[in-house]
Amino acid sequence: MKILFVTLLAVPLLMLAGCGEKSPGTAAKTEKQIKIPDEFTSEKQIPSVLENELTPEEKAALINQIMPSAANEPTPEEKFVKLRQDAESGDAKAQNGLGVMYYTGEAISKDASGKTLSNDPEKAAAWFHRSAAQGYADAQFNLGLLYANGEGVPKDSAKAVELFKKAADQGNADAQNNLGVMYYSGEGVPNDAAKAKEWFKKAAAQGNADAQANLDAMK
């Protein structure tokens, strides 16, 4: 019989907000037919080949067609300031969201010498702690993942299990799956295949593909 070992799945952190879908629009026309080469551009950029072909007004109009925005829509900086204000006032969801931004590097952070960091798991962990202490399931899962991987906090499998269990009991499918992995591998908790299967089933019932794959691997 071949024994399949299930490793701890690196489940992505739960983002504060998903990426918005852009509605298909009519391509802007210019007087010249310009062949645009393949290149990556961010949401509010236009292909470099057009930079010298359009006037500033035409560029602004084209960008507005690509990524239209409401006149009173806050800027990313304003959104961050509001999120931090809400987090500092004790809003658990905002605290978790701010932690995610520091973990991914979306929020700029600097070390003691003033060097800009690509991401800041320690600051992320601090905000996850605040949110998790209020019982916010997503933060409990995120903090558990940091403890499981030793990012921003000392590696502590038992603490990870504790946090995954709190989030799993609230129905967080990712936490249920990771809790199953911990039971299966015996990390931070005694090995128990039956309990692992139980948690995998709960997560799979919510549509968690990783949990279903783990169940299949156990067969």
Automatic annotation (TrEMBL):
Do you know which InterPro entries this protein is assigned to?
Mitotic_Regulator, Sel1-like, TPR-like_helical_dom_sf
The answer to whether the entry has keyword Signal is: yes
Can you tell which superkingdom this protein's organism belongs to?
Bacteria
Secretion signal: which residues? Answer: 1-17
Q: Which Pfam families does the entry mention?
A: Sel1 (PF08238)
Which PROSITE patterns does its entry note? PROKAR_LIPOPROTEIN
| Swiss-Prot/TrEMBL keywords | Signal
Q: Which PANTHER family match?
A: ACTIVATOR OF C KINASE PROTEIN 1-RELATED (PTHR43628), CHITIN SYNTHASE REGULATORY FACTOR 2-RELATED (PTHR43628:SF1)
Name by which UniProt lists this protein: Sel1 repeat-containing protein
Organism, as annotated: Nitrosovibrio tenuis
